[in-house]
Design brief:
- The protein is an alpha+beta fold and 725 residues long.
- The protein has four domains: 146 residues, Uridine Diphospho-n-acetylenolpyruvylglucosamine Reductase, domain 2; 266 residues, Cytochrome P450 (Cytochrome p450, Orthogonal Bundle); 133 residues, Sandwich (Jelly Rolls); 120 residues, Jelly Rolls, CATH 2.60.120.10.
- It contains 25 helices and 28 strands.
- The protein has a five-stranded mixed β-sheet with strand order 1-2-8-5-3.
- Strand 16 and strand 17 form a beta hairpin.
- The radius of gyration is 29 Å and the shape is globular.
Length: 725
């Protein structure tokens, strides 16, 4: 029986303060040392209060298996709930209510919302650092808190909140310290805090009222849009108090958490010259074609690895606090009712079971082929299970955008150059206020060519933080391809929004209806474009009509509301990234049908090496007699193949359509093109193109593809229906 089990071992410490000093000096190292000497459960004393610690990979497994069955959080987070004016604050709820609130908050705090404001974030960072004169030292924690607060203002309501930053910072600092019980609640009576709280809540409530009475929809979705649009399973929206509370809570999370993430990351990059050089070059590449989107940020593999390692090496969310609601057993010990218990993954972050030299910062450990952080139980910087943070996408977007923009825009150095980082708990662990950098002056970026579109799409699934490839395939398996005839409406203005669309083939017109009944064409959609997300995300009717252009039918990939919402919430994908994923799936299917004997891995390799090119009506693609330099697979459109019979005479010998390929004979036989290929005069053509040497290399590594190509080549040569090479 549980009652007969012993209590967990107690870590010795001085009277009154107990283990408080050890925790303040280096909580991570303290937890790891005690985990190694005492096991995954032990007791500590913090200023007269006894706390049970459950840590290591065993803690992650335990909470994943048992959930909140033994725990409650209402009492611990009651102060937070009162300050935010909410009866049911998500951090303090359990069971079905916690699940309900998580479901309702997913969209508002997702990457879908944050990613749209990357250009605004870039502008904010450039403005702040552009105002610093060369040679001046700046305090990193304060500067990054103000920058992060401005970022949140854009995400919250698509606007600068400059005049309100001071109040938001003070409100966040005091509320976080009192709410986490590090400061006494009496601190909440301070007049300056009360004034800052009133002003912050007034800002959020005014914004909510403005949104409720507006007559137009934002072109970019905001966090408030997400909060206002969502409904629970019974169709109930958030109350006004909940809207204000969660809007204000975003300031706390951003101001207190994000400045620490950015400051830690900036320190490690500036301290390591090689890492700095690599990340700076990567930032230059990401910005070379303009301001990067969310996918561009995810493809900054070195900077993302540095961020991942930073969250491991400098953990900020150290533990999840609970009150025990019933006696239970863990690790052979009795955990008693009403005990404060913290569940911490931090010991796993520094375990030699998972990591080589775990107490050294090494960004390469979080990249291929090592990926040490991916072992089960090794890495949980955002919590775990149903208690994981909903704002992972928001955190990554803000951190990567801010640091990439800094590296690209200005030259910095640590001040002093040999500065050794000191940390403090206030209320979360972070760099001390003494951490400064010196701005040496503006930097001239280096232009770098970006990978091809197909290659970028191919890298997307590897960068997904929250969804497995199997789950992604399962969701995409529920999609449907539809064909619409010329002139047919795909969606009609004013209809209910039920689906998300990606154009695969064809062309469609976007039209708006005016009060008098007239319509105006406002845009054209082509293959690869997507539409329908606004109605789904904002919960409004269709704001425009989409009609297939005259001349050719259109093929459209359709995701229903359920699949689209799951992709946004489960994978933290943005609309354009969803379009890229499903577009890649279509391209993979196209290449697989063209080369049926090639295994999936081979198709993936070939697609990764391909670029996507578009050709206009009647355009020459390859010409007979010229060197063979590329292989083509038609994605959409029709090509005509001609045999040149003399200087002024040619004969059409074939017509090629979507899914067919050409260019293989000249490449495989290393001979000039034996035919000419043009786009049919009445249409356009889109093709996957693989350059010659890459094609030969991939074919040599892929016997299945070679068999397909040789078989087709022999048929063509035998019948003299030679397609272009």
């Amino acid at each position: 029986m549980v009652a007969n089990l012993p209590l967990p071992p107690l870590v010795p410490g001085p009277p009154i303060i107990g283990n408080s000093l050890q925790l303040l000096l280096n909580l991570s190292r303290f937890f790891v040392d005690k985990y190694l000497s005492l096991g995954p459960v032990f007791r500590i004393r913090v200023v007269g209060r006894e706390v049970v610690v459950i840590t290591g990979h065993e803690a992650i497994r335990f909470l994943a298996e048992t959930g909140d069955r033994h725990f409650t959080r209402e009492e611990f987070y009651s102060c937070f709930a009162r300050e935010l004016g909410m009866k049911n604050f998500i951090l303090g709820t359990s069971g079905a209510e916690h699940t309900r609130l998580r479901s309702m908050l997913r969209l508002a705090f997702s990457r879908e919302v944050a990613g749209a404001y990357i250009p605004d974030m870039v502008a904010t960072v450039q403005r702040v650092f552009g105002e610093v004169r060369p040679g001046k030292k700046i305090p990193v924690m304060d500067t990054m808190a103000r920058i992060a607060c401005e970022h949140y203002g854009h995400v919250l309501a698509n606007r600068s909140i400059g005049p309100h930053v001071k109040d938001a910072l003070l409100f966040s600092q005091v509320a976080m310290n009192a709410g986490s019980r590090l400061w006494p609640e009496m601190i909440l009576r301070r007049p300056d805090y009360q004034r800052a709280k009133r002003n912050t809540f007034k800002l959020v409530r005014d914004l909510v009222q403005e949104y409720r009475t507006r007559t137009t929809t934002n072109p970019k979705m905001t966090l408030l849009d997400g909060l206002l649009a969502v409904r629970d399973s019974e169709g109930q929206p958030f109350t006004d108090d909940e809207l204000a509370g969660y809007g204000a809570f975003g300031f706390i999370g951003t101001c207190i958490y994000m400045n620490r993430v950015i400051a830690f990351l900036l320190y490690e990059i500036l301290k390591n010259p090689k890492l700095r050089e690599t990340c700076t070059a990567e930032a230059d590449a990401a910005f070379s074609a303009g301001i990067p989107d969310a996918l561009g940020l995810r493809q900054m593999v070195h900077l993302r690895a540095a961020l991942t390692e930073c969250l491991r090496f400098h953990p900020i969310q150290l533990a999840l606090p609970f009150n025990v609601k019933e006696d239970f057993e863990f690790g052979g010990y009795r955990i008693t009712k009403d005990q404060i218990c913290v569940v911490s993954p931090i010991s796993g972050h520094f375990s030699e079971r998972f990591y080589t030299c775990p107490f050294a910062f090494d960004a390469a450990r979080c990249q291929e082929p090592r990926n040490e952080h991916r072992a089960r139980g090794a890495y949980a910087p955002f919590g775990f299970g149903e208690r994981s943070c909903l704002a992972v996408g928001l955190v990554e977007a803000i951190a990567l955008t801010t640091v990439a923009t800094v590296l690209r825009s200005v030259d910095l150095e640590l001040a002093p150059t040999d500065y050794k980082l000191r940390t403090r708990m206030n209320p979360l662990p972070g760099p001390a206020e003494s951490f400064q950098v010196k701005v040496l002056g503006p930097r001239t970026p280096v232009h770098v060519e970006l990978p091809s579109l197909a290659s970028r799409a191919d890298q997307l699934t590897a960068a997904l933080p929250l969804i497995s490839a199997a789950r992604l395939g399962e969701l995409l398996g529920e999609t449907e391809v539809r064909t619409f005839v010329p002139g047919q409406f795909i969606i009609t203005e004013g209809d209910e929004a039920e689906e998300f669309f990606v154009m695969l083939e064809g062309q469609a017109e976007v039209t708006l209806k005016h009060a008098g009944g007239n319509t105006t064409r406002v845009g054209i959609l082509h293959a690869g474009d997507y539409f329908g997300e606004l109605g789904l995300l904002h919960g409004v009717r269709r704001t425009a009509s989409i009609r297939v252009s005259h001349g050719a039918a259109a093929r459209v990939l359709v995701l229903n509301r359920s699949v689209f919402t799951k992709l946004v919430s489960e994978s933290d994908l943005m609309s354009d990234e969803i379009a890229k994923v499903v577009r890649r799936r279509f391209l993979t299917d196209t290449l697989s049908k063209a080369l049926p004997q090639s295994p999936a891995a081979g198709v993936g390799q070939m697609l990764g090496a391909a670029s996507i090119k578009n050709f206009g009506p009647g355009q020459l693609i390859i010409k007979q007699g010229e060197p063979a330099d590329a292989f083509y697979v038609i994605i959409r459109g029709t090509a005509e193949v001609f045999k040149e019979m003399g200087e002024e005479h040619s004969t059409r010998i074939a017509e090629l359509s979507a899914g067919q390929f050409f260019g293989e004979i000249g490449l495989l036989q290393r001979r000039p093109r034996t035919a000419t290929v043009r786009v049919r005069h009445d249409g356009e053509l889109e093709a996957l193109v693989i350059e010659g040497e890459a094609f030969r290399r991939l074919v040599a590594e892929n016997p299945g593809a070679l068999n397909d190509l040789v078989s087709t080549m022999c048929q063509r040569l035998a019948t003299e229906l030679v397609r272009p090479e």
